[in-house]
Structures are given as structure tokens and as C-alpha cells.
């Protein structure tokens, strides 16, 4: 089933993670639930761990958002095999409903080189039908959702 393209009705900056491998498990990963797959073990830079600016995290599987959380706080993981990575505590809110169960395929298609190598994306939405890729694409410009 084709999902509607994401177009939140409020301005926001969203961190987008590919959770397919974590969610469905590979030999090197322990299978986790949706929340755990979205929130854990990310190599994410300090700038993007500012939850006051980058408020939301979305987990994608094949370009569609299966999860969306408001980020409450980031902290270093305590798991020894993931030292140097981070995880967050988050919650579902009224706003996250406008980010979950939508297609991010248009946004992802602009960043395929970055995305294929396990990088996360940062996307800004203006709340008026446009988005800007902040991490994952060079020379990004405002684009219609």
C-alpha cells in the first residue's frame, strides 16, 4: 500500500533513522521492538543531539515511517559493544502522529548515497508544504513535500 507523503502541519526538524536492520534482525543485530530500534545505538554528532532544536526522531522501513517520537533527552549508551554511540528517551505526542505512517521516500531519494551507507538524515519541515534536507544532501534547497 502506498502511503501519503509526509507533510506535517507545523514547523519542525526531524532526525530520520533507517531501522529496518535493527527491527527485523540481521546476524549482527539483536531483534528489537519499534521503539528500541528507533532510539538506540546511533553515531550522532553533538549538534544533532540538541533536543531543543531537533525535536523528533522517525524510524523508516523501506522509506515509510513506522515510528515517530518526541526526543526528551540524549545520553551515551551503556552497552559495551556500542561505546561512543547514543540513545534517547522519547514519547509519542500529538505532533508525532503527523510524522508516523507516512512516506519519506521523496526526502530519502534526494539522499540515497548518504542513506545507503547507514547515515541518518536531518530534515526541516516549514509546516507549509516544504522541506529542506539539513544532513544527507549537499546544496539542499526547499522542496515541495
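^ C-alpha cells above, recovered residues below v
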Amino acid at each position: 500500500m502506498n502511503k501519503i507523503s509526509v507533510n506535517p502541519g507545523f514547523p519542525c526538524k526531524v532526525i530520520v533513522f533507517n531501522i529496518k536492520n535493527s527491527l527485523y534482525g540481521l546476524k549482527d543485530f539483536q531483534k528489537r521492538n519499534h521503539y528500541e530500534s528507533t532510539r538506540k545505538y546511533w553515531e550522532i554528532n553533538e549538534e544533532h543531539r540538541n533536543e531543543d532544536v531537533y525535536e523528533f526522531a522517525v524510524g523508516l522501513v523501506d522509506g515509510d515511517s513506522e515510528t515517530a517520537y518526541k526526543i526528551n533527552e540524549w545520553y551515551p549508551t551503556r552497552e559495551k559493544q556500542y561505546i561512543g554511540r547514543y540513545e534517547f528517551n522519547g514519547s509519542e505526542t500529538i505532533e508525532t502522529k503527523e510524522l508516523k505512517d507516512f512516506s519519506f521516500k521523496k526526502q530519502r531519494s534526494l539522499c540515497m548515497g548518504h542513506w545507503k551507507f547507514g547515515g541518518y538524515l536531518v530534515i526541516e519541515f516549514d509546516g507549509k508544504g516544504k522541506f529542506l534536507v539539513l544532513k544527507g544532501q549537499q546544496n539542499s534547497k526547499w522542496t515541495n513535500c
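Residues 12-144 form one domain.
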